[in-house]
Each structure stands twice: as C-alpha cells, then as structure tokens.
Amino acid sequence: MAVRPDQTGRLAPHEVRAMLEQMSAADWRRVERFADFRAAGLVGVHGEDLLHHVITKLLAGLRTFPSTTSTLVVLKNAIKSEASNVRRTVNRGPIDVHAEVDTLGLDFDPGEHAGVVVEAVNPVDPLRELLAREQLDQLQQRLEGDDEAQLVAMAWGEGLRGRPAAEAIGLDTKAYDAARKRLERKIAQEVSRQ
Amino acid sequence: MTNTHYRDQLDRLLEGFFEDLRQLSDAEILDKESAATVNARVAKRLDRASAAAGSMRLAAARQRMSRVTIGTKSPWLAVSEQQAREYILRVSRDSRYTLAARSLSEMSASEILLLYRQLKQLETDQTPNTES
Lengths: 194, 132
Fold this sequence. Notes:
Chain A contains 8 helices and 2 strands. Chain A is mainly α and 194 residues long. Chain A has a two-stranded antiparallel sheet. In chain A, a hairpin with a 2-residue loop joins β1 and β2 (112-113). Chain A is globular, with a radius of gyration of 18 Å. Chain B has 132 residues and is mostly helical. In chain B, 66% of the residues lie in helices and 0% in strands. The interface between A and B is large, with 59 and 45 residues.
C-alpha cells in the first residue's frame, strides 16, 4: 500500500498504521529486542511497555513519523526517546512536563495527561546525565563476571562497532560474536510475549 | 580525560546494539520463532495501541476545546444577538481594540455571538475586576 505524506513530510495516523503493518516479522523482532535492551534498568518498565507507548503516540499523531525514514529507524528513535521520558517520569513523579518530544503533543499516561509541552532545549541536562550514568552502571553490573561482554559494551559506548570494536578490545571475530550475544542475553529482560 | 557525557555514551551503546541487530540475518533474529507467531503478536499490539491512540486523541481534542471554549459559568454568555451587536459596535470605537473592517450586518448571529464572547474574554483577561 503506497502512502503519501502530507506537505510537511509526515505520515498521517492511518498511514502510520499501514507502515507498521508492512514491517517484516524479522524487523519487528529487531524492534522488540531493542526495546527490551533499552528497558533494561528502567524500574517497572518492560520493553513491551515502551513499544506500546511509542506506537500509541505514533498512531495518535502525537509523535512524528517522517515519511523519508524507515519504520525500523523511526521506532528505534522513538524507543530511545520515550525510554528517557519514562525514566524521568519515574524519577520525578507521575507527570513529566519537561518530556522531550519531537512535535507538539501530550505526554500520555493512562488516565491523565500533562499540558502541552514545549520541547526542552538543554544540551546538558543534569538529570538526563545522571539517569544515563545510572543506566550505564546498571548495565555494567549485569555484565559482572563477563569481561569480554563488558568490553564489547564499552567499545559500543565509544562508538566502535563490528571489526573495529573487536580489534580495539583484542578479540577475534568468533570471540567478539560470542561476547556480543552474551551481552544481549545478560542485559535484555526476559519478557513473556503473547 | 575526554569531555564525554554519559548520555552520549549511552546513546552510542544503544546505537551499537541497534546496528548489531540490523546486521543479523532474518533467520538469526527470528531464532526459533516463526514469522507467523511474531505477526500475530504484532497484530494484537497494534490493535491495543490503536485503541489507546483513540483515547489519546480524544484527550488532546478535549484539551484544545477547553482552551478555546469560554467558561460555561461566565455571566456574559446569556446575551441576545442584538445586545452582542450593540456591544461590538461600542468596542469598535474603542482604540484599545482592532477589529477587522467587516460590516456587522454581514456577520451571522453565531459569528456575532462568538466575537462578543471573545471580546468579553479579552476584556476580562485585561481587567479582571471589570464588570460585564
């Protein structure tokens, strides 16, 4: 089904549903695994919660779905963004009026909603820094005892991937792949999906 | 010591994991699960999200309405069209307000009443103790 974005380059909500339905099962598994990974360390939040939150906002038109971006990347970016909002909400209370959104919208919590928010423009937000550090620390704790998996996480944290990451941490391809898989298994929460 | 923010570091870690997922083959990523099972789960997920999105849109619409709707307890809602026209005519001569140069006679009753309410709201906002 072809979709035609409006003049702003965004998809309408019904077109968003079409794009989501068209995404392959394999890409959906990538999204699920990424959501689980991202949710690791978020108190009381599972990957499926993040996914529901993100998709709901996309379908409601409260989060932009750029017409020129693949569905997989749209979801990935949205998951990253919403996880930060959820983490800040848990830290501050039920209503997060400073949640960062890409367009005008409401912060949605079932049963209540905040007012219209303006995107916060603060390149160094102390709270976000603290939360990021906490999550990094928690990730490292989960990898305790597995030096190679810890090294892979550190390499990724420095922006290294694939062969350059393996070379930087002194692992051959096979050992790197094995460590990478252990990294994900140790971090991603086991979610019972229906 | 580099001036690297933890947030940036976390972001790079997440991007690294994402790229890792993209490089896996479809068979590897699906592992032991069939595409049909995944698709069935996705369908349920989208249905749940669609229902929630409907509630969200309704909440958003209600909030927009509450911002443009004059309070139902405002006393100056109970006014006739004629009274509203007379008021608007007086206001149009007030230098504090700028009204579009459109004849009152061209405006419908509903337009007159809406303009009246907007002007009364403006008046109330500017002088809270002003009697209507």
